[in-house]
């Protein structure tokens, strides 16, 4: 009987993450179905994202890298170098882009401490060891956990002003007003002498944007489908990856890339660890990601609503991307 099978398969996934289970069930029992893009980044997903950043179609990383490289001295100057500060990076990742700024700040003899924050302790350990060999003079104190827990901890345990980095256009990944709410939350931790540098992907030819999320080699498709692989492994689901496909489109009115996993036929998926089944109609879509693109005016407005003034835009010659420096 199916019940018995489910119990047998259960053995493999006894220690599932209850938060993942709750989010996934909530997302797949509502209409339209959705899964949070924050779950893309398991081991395989992080590797696939590394590959995405190398794709010819995926311009954001390369463009932001160039902005930081070419304008590093000016950007560092805007941080204010006359007194000590904490350079807090939310979602530090591999720090490849940040190392440009870190090197520059050390070169300018800035008095600062680097505080990389990431949900993944593994990523932070890798970052710390690479920093130790590449930039031995750097003072680092990493924080594994939630971004706002990190800001709270800093406020209560550390003296001195701060410069907060939120790079890579991660700000674009929120739903609805999530970008505004995120900046409003950061604002609560800021003092007049603090700064925030945020990476925004700008509006451009809609075809350029669409291609960046639907590459010819199919890496982004694999990245999206990996979410289902993760649910198979971590929640004992039985998604047949051949029966779902990656679909993505950019709406130039809304300025949002929306990505989906579409069920190619009517089918039922069983989550053996959760004793739960989810049915899909033929061509029913699971919404998996939003990626917002902004006009400069929208960025100013967003800042204003969050109580932040945009002090300086750092952009590339094609105006594909902007790192924007805000203060209160
Ligand atoms: C990591 C959120 C910046 O939205 O461009 C890349 C994630 N998704 N290709 C983005 C992503 C598909 C990426 N961010």
Automatic annotation (TrEMBL):
InterPro entries: EgtD, EgtD_Methyltrsf_superfamily, MeTrfase_dom, MeTrfase_EgtD-like, SAM-dependent_MTases_sf. Pfam families: Methyltransf_33. GO terms for biological process: methylation. Its EC number is 2.1.1.44. Keywords: Methyltransferase, Transferase. It comes from the Bacteria. Residues 21-327 form the Histidine-specific methyltransferase SAM-dependent domain. The keyword tRNA-binding does not apply. The keyword Zinc does not apply. It is an enzyme of class 2 (transferase). Transmembrane segments: none annotated. One of its GO terms (molecular function) is L-histidine N(alpha)-methyltransferase activity. SUPFAM superfamilies: S-adenosyl-L-methionine-dependent methyltransferases. This is L-histidine N(Alpha)-methyltransferase. The gene is egtD.
């Amino acid at each position: 009987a199916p019940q018995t099978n489910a119990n047998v398969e259960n053995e493999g996934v006894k220690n599932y993450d209850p938060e993942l289970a709750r989010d996934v069930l909530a997302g797949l029992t509502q209409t339209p179905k959705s899964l949070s893009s924050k779950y893309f980044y398991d081991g395989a997903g992080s590797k696939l994202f590394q590959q995405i950043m190398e794709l010819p179609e995926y311009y954001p990383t390369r463009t932001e890298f160039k902005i930081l490289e070419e304008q590093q001295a000016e950007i560092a100057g805007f941080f204010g170098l006359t007194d000590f500060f904490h350079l807090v990076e939310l979602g530090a990742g591999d720090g490849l882009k940040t190392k440009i700024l870190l090197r520059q700040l050390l070169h300018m003899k800035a008095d600062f401490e680097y505080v990389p924050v990431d949900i993944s302790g593994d990523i932070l350990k890798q970052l710390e060891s690479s920093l130790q060999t590449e930039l031995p003079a750097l003072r680092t104190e990493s924080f594994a956990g939630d971004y706002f827990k990190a800001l709270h901890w800093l406020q209560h345990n550390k003296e001195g002003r701060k410069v907060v980095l939120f790079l890579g256009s991660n700000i674009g990944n929120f739903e609805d007003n999530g970008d505004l709410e995120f900046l409003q939350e950061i604002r609560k931790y800021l003092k007049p002498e603090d700064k925030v540098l945020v990476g925004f992907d700008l509006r451009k030819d809609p075809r350029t944007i669409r291609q960046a999320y639907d590459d010819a080699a199919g890496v982004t498709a694999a990245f999206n489908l990996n979410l289902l692989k993760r649910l198979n492994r971590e929640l004992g689901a039985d998604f047949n990856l051949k029966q779902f496909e990656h679909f993505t489109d950019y709406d130039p009115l809304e300025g949002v890339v929306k990505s989906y996993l579409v069920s190619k036929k009517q089918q039922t998926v069983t989550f053996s660890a959760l004793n739960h089944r989810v049915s899909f109609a033929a061509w029913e879509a699971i919404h998996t990601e939003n990626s917002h693109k902004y006009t400069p005016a929208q960025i100013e407005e967003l800042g204003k609503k969050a109580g932040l003034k945009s002090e300086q835009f750092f952009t590339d010659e094609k105006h594909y991307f902007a790192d924007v420096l805000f203060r209160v």
